[in-house]
Design brief:
CATH architecture of the largest domain: Alpha-Beta Barrel
CATH superfamily of the largest domain: Metal-dependent hydrolases
Oligomer: single chain
Strand order of the largest sheet: 3-2-7-18-19-20-21
Structural class: alpha/beta
Distance between the termini: 117 Å
Number of strands: 21
CATH topology of the largest domain: TIM Barrel
Strand content: 15-25%
Largest sheet: 7 strands, mixed
Number of domains: 2
CATH class of the largest domain: Alpha Beta
Shape: globular
Radius of gyration: 24 Å
Length: 471
């Protein structure tokens, strides 16, 4: 009996080991980095896809920001310096007494102010409807595009030069992304997911169905092949990040992440409890929100260098307004302010890299920059220095976008996304509400707090009209 029992236990142990070995062998696909195949000096699209583009010469006079203190998001302290912009790139960061710029340069006097990289919000939904919007316009792509343009202007006015939009109505986020990239509208850069991918009845699709909880905003798919296909569709439409949400199975989440990584896109997840474990095991890049997760999941996130975007303030707003989550099958847990903050502190203690996002929806977009400043203050309360919180808002966020080589800090060669703040935000976060000037892609969009849109220059006719030989 003893030998039989030992044999049975050994057989059970061997059987139990098989899935673990198989899981260990089934590593997620590595994130493809196209930069390895492109000349470092070549021009590409300013997004993670990195599409090769024809080289264009810088036009217009240089832009020089002098007299201010520069917080470059590389060092933790600001210093007197001059920023020189040529075209859409930072050409130089000069000592304060240097005059190494062209004679026709445009000068911005930043005396008494702080010059720093543009802010980045890693979690927005700029095309979502306002609560008072007519029901028949809430899932309209046209209305969503107009809402998005309005909300993006508000973000730009307060110093945001990039936002990551993690789902919206139909193709509106992709339209806004391409128009902003072409500087056809005054807006931050838009890194768009387009829509949420979830299983049938998953987050943002549960009953009761509303326009913003319908198929124009979230895609319900079942089975690994369908998840893989939806990732491909998002890539085709212009996604620069993939967003998934619980619920899903282990093979579904792995298929989505593998496909996104093969295409060169990062994946972030709105998930909780056991679904966080599944996403982490499948090789997810980021986890959104302070939703419940196990100690084991946090430890695995730290080991695998999986980042987090905690969005503490949006849930504080929810708790202040409604007291918690009710009536949602994708939010079957108790949420408290302390519990959320405990999640944040555990992730920080584990060494997880965390970025700044607000999860603004609908008219909450018009709260910028208040929610963002409040989110930064949560980071400071959780142990970040003020300077490190600002670095999370800039260079860390840029790296999480897979754009750290182009955005997030004031360094020669980087894209010219620069803001001028009337104050010392590296010492007092509330000063971020006093953004005077915003330069995005080398264009001075906000000057002295006002949006500046140059007059349209009409195209000439082919020939004078009416023709001279017409009598």
């Amino acid at each position: 009996m003893a030998e039989s029992g030992l044999a049975f236990c050994a057989a059970m142990a061997a059987a139990a080991a098989i899935p673990a070995i198989a899981q260990a062998d089934a590593q997620p696909a590595a994130l493809q980095d196209r930069r390895a195949y492109i000349d470092p000096d070549a021009r590409t699209s300013d997004d993670p896809v990195r599409i090769p583009l024809r080289t264009t010469a810088a036009n217009g006079p240089e832009l020089v920001i002098r007299g201010g203190r520069v917080f470059d998001a590389v060092d933790n302290v600001a210093r007197p310096a001059t920023v020189v912009i040529s075209g859409n790139r930072i050409r130089a960061i000069l000592p304060p007494h240097s005059v190494d710029w062209s004679s026709d340069a445009q000068i911005i006097d930043a005396t008494g102010k702080t010059v720093m990289p543009g802010l980045i919000d890693l979690h927005t939904h700029v095309t979502y409807p306002d609560r008072n919007e007519p029901i028949d316009e809430q899932d309209s792509e046209g209305a969503g595009t107009l809402r998005g343009q309005r909300n993006l202007r508000h973000f730009l006015e307060y110093g945001f030069t990039s936002v990551r939009d993690l789902n919206g109505v139909s193709n509106a986020p992709f339209l806004l992304s391409s128009w902003s990239a072409a500087n056809a509208i005054p807006a931050p850069r838009v890194f768009a997911a387009g829509w949420i991918i979830t299983g049938t009845g998953g987050h943002a699709t549960e009953r009761p169905i509303t326009p913003s909880h319908g198929p124009k905003f979230a895609k319900e798919v079942d089975g690994p092949d369908a998840w893989r296909a939806m990732v491909r569709k998002a890539f085709k439409e212009g996604a620069s990040v993939i967003k998934i949400a619980s619920h899903f199975s282990a093979d579904e989440v792995r298929a989505a992440i593998d496909e996104a990584h093969l295409l060169g896109l990062k994946v972030t997840c709105d998930c909780e409890t056991i679904y966080t474990d599944l996403a982490v095991d499948a090789g997810i890049d980021m986890i959104e929100h302070p939703l419940p997760k196990s100690e084991a999941a946090i430890a695995k996130m730290a080991r695998a260098r999986i980042a987090a975007v905690p969005t503490l303030q949006v849930y504080q707003n929810l708790l202040d307004r409604a007291g918690g989550f009710y009536g949602s099958t994708s939010r079957r847990f108790t949420m408290t302010s302390q519990g959320n903050f405990d999640q944040f502190k555990k992730m920080k203690a584990a060494g997880i890299v965390m970025g700044i996002g607000t999860d603004t929806i609908g008219e909450a977009s018009m709260m910028a920059p208040n929610s963002y400043i409040a989110e930064l203050k949560w980071f400071v309360r959780g142990g970040y220095s003020t300077a490190d919180a600002l670095k999370a808002a800039t260079i860390v966020n840029a790296r999480l976008l897979d754009m750290g080589d182009k955005l997030g800090s004031l360094e020669p060669g980087k894209l010219a996304d620069v803001i001028i703040v009337d104050g010392r935000p590296d010492e007092n976060l509330d000063d971020l509400a006093r953004v005077n000037d915003v330069i995005k892609d080398g264009i001075h969009y906000i000057a002295d707090g006002q949006l500046v849109v140059p007059r349209h220059m009409p195209l000439p006719l082919v020939k004078p009209s009416p023709p001279a030989d017409v009598k």
